[in-house]
Automatic annotation (TrEMBL), chains A, B:
Transmembrane segments: none annotated. The lineage of its organism: Bacteria, Pseudomonadati, Pseudomonadota, Gammaproteobacteria, Oceanospirillales. Pfam families: RecR_C, RecR_HhH, RecR_ZnF, Toprim_4. It comes from Halomonas casei. HAMAP family: RecR. This is Recombination protein RecR. Residues 80-175 form the Toprim domain. PANTHER family: RECOMBINATION PROTEIN RECR (PTHR30446:SF0). Signal peptide: none annotated. Belongs to the RecR family.
Amino acid sequence: MRFSPLVEQLMEAFRVLPGVGPKTAQRMAMHLLERERPGGQRLAAVIQQAIEEVGYCQRCRTLTEAEICALCESARRNDALLCVVESPADQLAIEEAGGFKGRYFVLHGHLSPLDGIGPESIGLDLLEARVAEGLVEEVVLATNPTIEGEATAHYIASQLSEYGVKLSRLAYGVPMGGELEYVDGGTLSRAFNGRLPFTSE
Amino acid sequence: MRFSPLVEQLMEAFRVLPGVGPKTAQRMAMHLLERERPGGQRLAAVIQQAIEEVGYCQRCRTLTEAEICALCESARRNDALLCVVESPADQLAIEEAGGFKGRYFVLHGHLSPLDGIGPESIGLDLLEARVAEGLVEEVVLATNPTIEGEATAHYIASQLSEYGVKLSRLAYGVPMGGELEYVDGGTLSRAFNGRLPFTSE
């Protein structure tokens, strides 16, 4: 015996979510059907609406149902600073860290020629047009510190070189609050090579 | 900054699922919007359809979109044995352990007078009518080995006492304070084979 076909379909459909295996999918299906039908109905409606209406901001490509996102609309941000990130989640992480008051540009991925993801797939034509406007003075390349992220940053750097903007990247080093023992070798040697004068502030 | 209102609503809606906190909800929303829109659309449609169409089997009260579930329809099960469980997940766990070839009755919970859950809320009128039909010779009270599950079993035992059916419960061997759904198959099988006469000690 299994559950009825429709209940099985529901369990199967939950598997599309990240980190959801068969047991969790079953728990989710049972929870919705046994205890949370109103919440489930709302979840279905919101998923449907979000998938239909949420697209990319025409200016920075972050996820939004508006044409231009709230951050691009804001008058309080510094137009001279543009931070390039791979995903809206990275953008949020930087915002929550606080301190950066410029604008963003979201790639939704990184260059990956083998998967057919070229410059236009990650919006680099739009990014170049943005820099060509002339307001941006510095582009912070905050792609992920991975092979693909670094390669993408290098590509963008050479693409933008003719516009005379300052290019920067996030500092590499050991994470705050971590233990050296558990930091990987690549990070450690980068942190060593980039060591700074010690100051007791 | 947060995400756009609709993306925030999507994240909030995922919180209805069991074990989903803010960080997981964000990961799910991003995953659907960035990489899995077709899967998300299917998930929304299946949730919607399941919530509308899945109800209780008219005979055993398990979850099904049919009037009578496949197990109740089956001619291969023993009508003389009826196993009473708290949830469809418990029923599935027993089926997957193998060995039991009777029928089921699903309570969808246990008696809980303080929450207004009385005998009719858990279908005990239907259960009594089923036993009154006269085919059932033994009722296995497989409620959870918790205070509430035991209390419910005692209530059912006294309710059915006048019909002269044999009453049994799962052998201890299932861990006290646990939930049937998460007990491994071997333990469940043993508990089934070692089931004992129900007594109101």
